[in-house]
Write a structure and sequence with these properties.
Strand content: over 45%
Strand order of the largest sheet: 4-6-7-8-5
Oligomer: single chain
Shape: globular
Largest sheet: 5 strands, mixed
Low-confidence stretches: 1-27
Mean pLDDT: 76
Length: 100
């Protein structure tokens, strides 16, 4: 038997499932957070350029279906705690993305 439990967290929902045979818990979050290292941000503008072959570029284009002008949630990874924000997506001529 499988049971499903749904939690409503603001705009994001979480689903947890357990099976009676192996007690595995599966979690799915409705939020996508694109992780950025501090060294990837352009110092003069704060924008982030992602190359065409970057897995994050592929995810934003192919799975999230984001177009120029759409926004994505990004998180800056740093040892002392990061920050989260929204960034606008700009498609570049080389097939990559710029997040501003």
């Amino acid at each position: 038997a499988t049971t499903a439990i749904f939690y409503q967290l603001g705009q994001h929902s979480t689903a947890a499932s357990t099976t009676a045979t192996n007690h595995v818990i599966y979690l799915r979050y409705a939020m996508n957070l694109i992780l950025i290292k501090p060294t990837e941000s352009l110092t003069d503008t704060g924008a982030v350029d992602l190359e065409p072959n970057d897995d994050r570029t592929k995810h934003i284009i192919e799975h999230l279906n984001k177009k120029t002008g759409d926004t994505v949630s990004i998180g800056f990874v740093c040892p002392l705690g990061g920050r989260k924000c929204k960034a606008s997506v700009l498609h570049r001529q080389n097939g990559g993305l710029r997040l501003v």
